[in-house]
TrEMBL record:
InterPro entries: ABC_transp_permease, LivM-like. This is Branched-chain amino acid ABC transporter permease. It comes from Halorussus aquaticus. It is found in: Cell membrane. It is a multi-pass membrane protein. The lineage of its organism: Archaea, Methanobacteriati, Methanobacteriota, Stenosarchaea group, Halobacteria.
Length: 394
């Protein structure tokens, strides 16, 4: 009998150890959501079903009134905003000249398609390479100054690119008319971009969306890998206090330049995809309002988050194209008759309010900034955390 309390205590201690080990080994929700495989998997699923939910789902599409081309455009601008957020949200550098990389890549991709190769993959690589090199050159000069001086320098370079494309280089860019000689071949030499995907046209639509969606997933994977690497940690340290980061031995200027180049590269990917999407490069691609739009998208969705800028791009483009009642562009389609339903009529969601879409967007932006400083994505994260606490989760 004297040994029974000891055995009971030992059993309780063993059980407590097992419970503690099990609790420690079970991943928390935060740890799961930060897993690279989870992020890439969720992104892939979301990209795959997005055009169906947005444009063709019987109930949801009837409320959102979206369409296929807008779903594609949202992903393209989402890549642009996500890359910009790597600079603003994680490094703390505000650039007003990112249109130089978006527009430069768009023009480079268009000229490459007309003069060298019409392969969509090579077109993307050409535009992205041009944007990365441009970002290195402009960043090398602009980052010699900080704060408002850096922002003004980037704005000046962006406007210089605009006026260069308008007049001195008009023989290449087309001047005010933009570049109209874009030539697009088949994807991988087999698939026509404007044709629906056989068997999956009801879900993802055309091969063009498949290309854009695949690149978007790869960009999310790359951004997630960067943010969870030592580079991402240094970017955050620079954002918090660049002087302290320099005191511990980090070459802050070099890391800022790398962040600038990475951000410009993402902008180049998006600009190249925009050329493929529209088969035309407008002169406004270089204009300062393009840089302003990506700033608004990032802040609206939530700077400092991976998916916030993509959500902000979606909200911005939705207000611009649906709430405003702007008619979408349609491309003549010559495919099989069973896919003709993919080409829809122009949509007007708020007839009578279309002329005030800038005001509506401004009110939304002010409300988000004042009420939800972390953006729409931050609001969703807070709501999700509250629901998990109510459900007894971690």
């Amino acid at each position: 009998m004297s040994d029974e309390p000891t055995e009971t205590a030992d059993a309780a201690e063993d059980a407590g150890t097992v419970v503690e080990r099990t609790d420690r080994e079970l991943p928390s929700w935060e740890r799961v959501t930060e897993s690279e495989w989870f992020v890439v998997g969720v992104t892939t699923v979301a990209v795959a079903i997005f055009p169906w939910l947005f444009a063709r789902a019987p109930v949801i599409s009837g409320v959102l009134r979206g369409y296929q081309d807008l779903a594609t455009l949202i992903l393209i601008w989402g890549i642009f905003a996500m890359g910009f957020n790597l600079l603003l949200g994680y490094t703390g550098l505000l650039s007003f000249g990112h249109a130089a990389f978006w527009g430069g890549a768009a023009y480079a991709a268009g000229v490459f398609s007309a003069q060298v190769s019409s392969s969509p993959i090579l077109v993307i690589l050409a535009g992205t390479t041009f944007a990365a090199l441009s970002a290195w050159v402009l960043g090398f000069v602009s980052l010699r100054r900080g704060g408002i001086y850096f922002a003004i320098l980037t704005l000046a370079f962006g406007q210089m690119a605009y006026y260069m494309a308008l007049s001195p280089l008009a023989w290449i860019t087309g001047g005010e008319n933009g570049f109209t000689g874009v030539q697009l071949g088949k994807l991988l030499g087999v698939f026509q971009l404007r044709y629906p995907v056989p068997g999956l046209g009801w879900l993802v639509g055309t091969w063009k969306y498949v290309l854009v969606g695949t690149v978007a997933v790869l960009c999310v994977a790359a951004a997630n890998r960067i943010l969870h690497s030592p580079y991402g940690m240094v970017f955050r340290a620079i954002r918090e206090n660049d002087q302290r980061a320099e005191f511990v031995g980090l070459n802050v200027w070099r890391y800022k330049l790398m962040a600038f180049v990475i951000s410009g590269t993402f902008a180049g990917v998006a600009g190249s995809l925009f050329t493929i999407y529209s088969a035309y490069v407008p002169l406004s691609s270089f204009y300062w309002t393009t840089s302003g739009e990506v700033v608004i998208m990032s802040v609206l969705g939530g700077v400092g988050s991976l998916f916030g800028p993509i959500l902000g791009a979606g909200v911005y483009l939705y207000v611009e194209n649906i709430v405003s009642g702007v008619q979408k562009l349609t491309v003549p389609f010559t495919g099989p008759s069973e896919y003709l339903t993919l080409v829809e009529e122009p949509i007007v969601l708020m007839d009578g309010f279309g002329a005030y879409w800038h005001l509506i967007l401004g009110l939304v932006f002010v409300a988000v900034v004042v009420l939800f400083p972390r953006g729409i994505w931050g609001l969703l994260e807070d709501a999700g955390s509250a629901l998990r606490r109510l459900g007894g989760g971690r």
